[in-house]
């Protein structure tokens, strides 16, 4: 019997053993993916282990919203705005202003007037090329993002009325109170490295602007590869308006995303989407220059925003699963899994991922004050930002064609 087994490898071809041949073909398809059916296609996929907290420990301490209160939100401006990632209001209280998938920053002028184009981030912008209506959040629009721009984080300087923009392709920009064509401020850091994926920002009272550059390898179009690889080349940057230089505050980050200064500006928070957490970085005091984990989350955070009480709203695309954690901790298994010849949506469902929206309110110590969920995806399945303004939550999304509102508290 042993001799017969050895003959398989010594003198016989695998083609004479159909089961061995079948396994060989299947493994070849998985690793080579010759038909480019898998979600990774032609990409040079190099997964690494994620630095993420235990799924079990996070979920044990995470309060659930059994009433799914976020699902009672109201849909606003349906099919009028496309991918409204960030929401802002000017110093006179007008708004919202938001950046759209077609490359514009628009503002709401009120009933009877509707939305108007407030700013664009590049002279390349044209209505013919960029304004594709409700197709602007489809893959069709992605072909034009690098030309039209993709405004993500927005912030008003309350002193000057200027609007600062983090654009995924054109870096950090500013436009005056009357709008128009935005002026570039930062497209490279002080060492000449390009800002490949500017994402969000906040403005310090001294004029410095803190903003995130999500990856040094991938742009927004390939943001899923950042998540799937777990690569950590993202950075927290600071633009100095006096020297007009951009300094690296923190590097080696895994999908740095939202940024928010504390009310007293002694620290700032930024989210790491891949690692499902919020990081606290000290700007003042004895711990200046150090950072700590502020909160581990059940899902993938986007922007973080301050309310008038000095508390922090975090937008979370939920939720992690045990299967997803296995892949996060095992790069080899992940490499094989995402080369399977199936669409990403199928592979995600196979891991038990049924995305829905969670928003959570934290105090300055990282303690959870509120959790609102939309488990049925009534308001939105993916969330990007939550703003609390005058007794109402304004909720943005990078993928849907509406904004949501909810009275609060």
TrEMBL record:
Keywords: Glycoprotein, Membrane, Signal, Transmembrane, Transmembrane helix, Vacuole. It is found in: Vacuole. GO terms for molecular function: hydrolase activity. The chain crosses the membrane at residues 20-37. It holds the Pfam family Str_synth. Residues 199-285 form the Strictosidine synthase conserved region domain. GO terms for cellular component: endomembrane system; vacuole. PANTHER family: PROTEIN STRICTOSIDINE SYNTHASE-LIKE 13, STRICTOSIDINE SYNTHASE-RELATED. Belongs to the strictosidine synthase family. This is Strictosidine synthase conserved region domain-containing protein. It comes from Papaver atlanticum.
